[in-house]
Amino acid sequence: MTRHDLPDIDRRTVLKASGGAAALVGLGVPGTATGAEETADVAQFRAYWVDGFNEGLYDADEVRSLVAAASDANHNAIIAQVVRRGDCFCDDALPPRTDAPIADDFDPLESLVEEAHEAGLEVHAWMNVNTMWNQETPPEADDHPFNTNGPGSDNPWHSVREDGEEHVGHNYFFDPGHPAVADYLVDTACSLVEHYDIDGINLDYVRYPDHNIEIGTPSWGYNEVALDRFRAETGRDDVPDADDEEWAQWRRDQVTNLVRRIYVETYATDPEICLSANTITYGYGPEAQGGWESTRTYAEVLQDWRAWMEEGIVDLNVPMNYKRDWDDDQATMYRQWNEFTADHQYDRHAVVGSAVYLNEIENTVDQIRAALTETDDGNRVVGWTGYSYATPDLSTFEGERGADEAREDLAHALTEESPDGGDPVFADAASVPERTWKTEPETGHVSGSVSVRDDGPVDGLEVTVNQRNETVATTTTTGNGWFGVVDLEPGRYRIELPAGETRGRRVANVSIETGSVTDVEFTLQGMM
User: Fold this and answer.
1) How far is Cα 280 from Cα 296, in angstroms, rounded to an integer?
2) Number of other CB atoms surrounding residue 268 within 10 Å
């Protein structure tokens, strides 16, 4: 596989520290925007989502057209769906190569990285997380997880609904409460980072499924391995109801644990990789629904992305704020979620994702202006992304015109002549906002594992991180025995397991260094 690097220069550092596409003009990199030298101070993330079920990634010509269209719209990033349902639009990552009709000698991700980087664009590898398969016919690859661990296997990985339903249509979903699923998904993300010169991993479907028995009730997660883990940790022996609060929180924690582990382990592979997540924004904003914990995001699909941002285990939040701006109610919903998103970035970044396919171009421009407006608390998101490249406006979605024409019209409206008569929202080229916590880190992270000799990982064990006799963090081991804590100040720490529950070494002294992950392993003689 060919990696694209500037001669004797770290391309990613140049992009972020020196003004993105603007900085590359002086380096003679082809494809950068004319006059970009004058816009080096503009920092704003701008991207299309490019799904793997439509045009964009199927051959070299499509990739070149995609990069050109993104550049014409003064975008600086592409979020490309390379992992759809346990398959990959690539050759060198963990998932098997997709069954989609692409040439045998063509690696879509490799081609996209090379073309996009030459044009000064970031590439974020979009990875569907908890989607397993979605066709009546099984995948061709023998090592696809649906074939190895799907329905009927000795160790099924798919989620089950409370009523026993295993799929919706032909859609099967991974269960994040199964430890082997977590291992597989983490290894998938890490393999993309290890083998391709991507700028980020973009997590989609990082939650429990829709298609619940009742709106507001989280009905999925009844995989037998997950249930057994829940019973072992809580001491219960029942099958909990879907709306059982303890069971709901346990499942919510499984999703958060997965995000945390992907963050830490991809960081260990590449400290500057950007981890982003496409997050849920159903209905009106949280304040209108009675608070964050009353939203369907938190209560139904069990995705606590507000907490992820506060903890710092996501670099870039990309809420899928898919609303029709020509509908007054949905226009209100859109702006309420924008405000909540901007006001809950903590020390990370957020951009607003809108559905260009549900809106005509003038509506999209209005939504972008709204997304970039300062909130009452004085906060702003750092950019915008649109879904999707394949369907750039409502007219295209309804079959009234072609996507190429719509993309040209959208690019013209964004960069040259705004339909509302104002200044075009993307009139100037922009650099990706620098992720200073990655490029100039002031903290470090710790990860580790706890296992019993000859008996495997220890699940649900509390781990404390102490410094100078003060507890600075507490976490719990996952089903793989893994634990992790992010953003610790540099220095010496004691990692401790609870007294009275373990036999063997219970304390480890570690040094945390800026910009790195410190690993620690506990191999116990047994449990009390």
Assistant:
1) 8
2) 18
With tokens 């028995």, the residue in question is 213
Class of 11-437 in CATH: alpha beta
| Model confidence, pTM | 0.91
Q: What is the rounded distance in angstroms from the CA atom of residue 459 to the CA atom of residue 480?
A: 7
**Orientation of helix 179-195 relative to helix 224-234, angle to 10°:** 110
Q: Are β-strands 462-467 and 470-476 bridged in parallel, bridged antiparallel, or unpaired?
A: antiparallel
Query: What pLDDT digit, counting tens, does each position of 37-46 carry?
Result: 344 468 999 9
Only one residue has tokens 């016919």, namely 137
CATH level 3 topology of 442-527: Immunoglobulin-like (2.60.40)
CB 193 within 8 A of CB 270: yes
Contact (CB, 8 A) for 274 and 246: no
Write the pLDDT tens digit of every residue in 354-365.
999 999 999 999
All CATH 2.60.40.10 domain ranges of the chain, comma separated, are 442-527
For residues 283, 397, 113 and 14, what is the CA-based torsion angle, rounded to 10 degrees?
Answer: -60
Residues of the chain with CATH 3.20.20.80: 11-437
| 324: three-class secondary structure by DSSP | coil
Q: What interhelical angle do 224-234 and 245-269 show, nearest 10?
A: 110
- Asked if 161 contacts 220 with a C-beta cutoff of 8 angstroms, the reply is yes
82's enclosing H/E stretch is strand 77-83
